[in-house]
Write a structure and sequence with these properties.
There is one protein chain. This protein is mainly alpha-helical. It is about 55% helix and about 0% strand. It has helices spanning about 15-25, 30-40, 45-50, 55-60, 65-85, 100-105, 110-125, 130-140, 150-160, 165-180.
């Protein structure tokens, strides 16, 4: 059994943000490799802003929508630098990433999932990032019965204690990558097998 892919550098909101942007519509191992290549050339917003879209394309290929992401990442870096210069609300220093959902959603390429990853993994704040693993496993556990990520996020917020929000994505991603897979989930070795109703699972072993 493969070990779970560790995508996000710990306690580095900038790298977590960029990795999360790259991860959209992209498989986890591809995101991890592309992020590592990019960060060898762009350790901070200043360095990223200096890279051309053409250079970024070669570094992040073959992530999903790599052409679009290659264009938006320098813009994202420049916006972070502008936030730092203005010190908006006193929250951005030296290229720091914003610490609120509202400000994060103003950045190019950032939706609720990416913003929640930054808040929870970068700053340890209560936020539930709903990706494909969280969506699938939460429904199989019958914690929610939803098809849209926003509905899953709201449903989980209603039933999970607030202190557990920030860890939910990390835990379910690990479970979804290794055991609760999209096809042929390994229910027989799942640590939650006694609790899981296996809703929607038709082929388990």
């Amino acid at each position: 059994m493969d070990a779970p892919v560790k995508l996000m550098p710990q306690k580095d909101p900038f790298r977590i943000l960029v990795s999360a942007v790259l991860s959209t519509r992209t498989q986890d191992p591809v995101t991890a490799a592309a992020s590592a290549r990019l960060f060898r050339h762009a350790r901070d917003p200043q360095a990223l802003s200096r890279l051309s879209p053409a250079r970024i394309r070669t570094l992040i290929l073959p992530v999903g929508f790599y052409r679009t992401k290659a264009k938006l990442l320098p813009r994202l870096a420049r916006m972070l630098m502008a936030l730092s210069d203005r010190g908006r609300r006193g929250q951005c220093r030296d290229g720091d990433v914003p610490r609120t959902m509202e400000e994060l959603l103003e950045l190019p390429g950032v939706g609720r999932k990416v913003a929640s990853i930054v808040l929870s993994q970068g700053y340890g704040l209560p936020a539930i990032a709903v990706d494909t693993h969280v969506q699938r496993v939460s429904n199989r556990l019958d914690l929610v019965r939803t098809s849209r990520p926003i509905d899953t996020e709201r449903g989980l917020m209603e039933i999970l204690p607030r202190h557990a929000w920030k860890d939910w994505n990390r835990l379910l991603v690990a479970l979804g990558q290794t055991i609760c897979r999209p096809r042929q989930p390994l229910c027989s070795v799942c640590p939650l097998s006694r609790l899981c109703p296996r809703r929607g699972v038709s082929d388990s072993r």
